[in-house]
Amino acid sequence: MAYSNKVIDHYENPRNVGSLPKEDPNVGTGLVGAPECGDVMKLQVKVNPSTGVIDDAKFKTFGCGSAIASSSLATEWLKGKTVDEALAIKNTDIVTELSLPPVKIHCSVLAEDAIKAAIADYKKKQDTTAGKSADTHAQPTA
Amino acid sequence: MAVKLPIYMDYHATTPVDPRVVEAMLPYFTQHFGNAASRNHPFGWEAEEAVDKARKQVADLIGANAKEIVFTSGATESDNLAIKGAAEMYREKGNHIITCVTEHKAVIDTCKRLEKDGYRVTYLPVQKDGRISLDGLRAAISDKTILISIMTANNEIGVIQPIAEIGAIAKEKGILFHTDAVQAVGKIPFNVNDLKVDMASISAHKMYGPKGVGALYVRRRNPRVLLAPQIDGGGHERGMRSGTLNVTGIVGFGKAAELCRLEMVADTARLSALRDRLNARLHKGLDEIYINGSTEHRLPHNLNISFAYVEGESLLMGINDVAVSSGSACTSASLEPSYVLKALGAGDDLAHSSIRFGLGRWSTEEEVDYVADKLTNVVTRLREMSPLYELAKEGVDLSTMQWQTEGQH
Lengths: 142, 409
Prior knowledge:
The complex is a heterodimer.
Chain A: H1 5-12, E1 27-34, E2 39-47, E3 54-62, H2 65-78, H3 83-87, H4 91-98, H5 105-134
Antiparallel strand pairs in A: 1-2, 2-3
Chain B: E1 7-8, H1 19-25, H2 27-30, H3 42-62, E2 69-72, H4 75-89, E3 96-100, H5 105-116, E4 120-124, H6 134-140, E5 145-149, H7 163-173, E6 176-180, E7 199-203, E8 214-218, H8 247-285, E9 289-291, E10 302-307, H9 312-318, E11 322-323, E12 325-326, H10 339-343, H11 348-352, E13 354-358, H12 365-384, H13 387-393
Helix pairs in contact in B: 1-8, 3-8, 4-5, 8-12
């Protein structure tokens, strides 16, 4: 299989590999895929609470070169975007940027899923934190 | 000494032609170009003589009589001829065939075709070590069973099946026994009489001969195996396989067989030492790597390892100056991981993480060391970016995790 130069570049010099603290209320974590399918992506975003802008993004991926490149590219794109802008990223944008062949489209789908999962996790945490502060005086339910 | 790149370590896929084989073949392209079936002039006689010599060379390698060798275009054709030919010929005796789940597609898909034609096929499972259970084989046999087809050595994991034991069972029950011996012949001792094999498929290009030529061994005595031809025509090869003989290829096949017979002991010793060196060096540099299949019953030049937490295709990308194969789905058109590794029950994730190393006549220590070191570096780097490795190091049991599978997965 011939890889595009961009895929090779991301594979050889992946951007933003690593992990952010999962427990941080401003960090959203998405873990998608399954080992038996050959792809697992973990993608994390750290959102600045005052601006709503994604300050940092990290990934770790188990998968083929195209999966690694898709998630690496996603973290690059996420940084500096608002949460809503991030949700507008489409898998087809990744396909175009990396020139992925048809058999690798699922890698871009997985990256889009990872973005959405990370942001959903962040939003859930925000809701819970907001809920907690509002409910400080409420009676705990059984 | 610097190694020459790229390195070829995929000898199960194919082998280069030995220069001595090429030399033997050359005169048969231009000088002795006759048709072996031309009985009335010297050009034909020369060609026939060359084919006869090669037939003897191939027969000698497997302890057969020259008359029992049917030349074909390769092992896929041999498998088709053996299985379809026997099924058709012995249809009145029964309609049941026994094979195994880790067979080459040339056997599996041939059996599937026969199932559509009303035959019944049992696909025996394999144990964790990749070998079939002999009790399982006995239990599968019925009075309708006409053929057992079990490969000698597997093309992915190099595991050698208990062929002599299977041969004895088949003989005892009066059932024909075919073996796809492509990966084994020329590499390990293989004698059709010791193993009680009735048919065996062989290929020249897996043993330093040319592509496009193979053979089917067909027993002539005890029992005399009859096959319905699958290609009709001039009645070549005792009527079992029509078509003008590929004289040049056959000459090369014969020479390759002779070289394998003479050099097998030395080659085996050298290659198993190299294979063990590769394995030891990888184990020294990396934890959580697993050999797929039996280490005891295994071809001397095969190593198949799963590198936990990293995916096979990304591994191959990191060692792109080394030619090996992976069981990863991403390297196959089907997006399915290796069915052979899945059959071992190791888990799909380990199937995706596997690499097959096939050593051969021109493999060197320097190459082995280069590959082991490079792979150690790549695996280490990929594990650093593997969420699975991170989770495992945190103590999470990956097998009990709930994974989100969406889209095409």
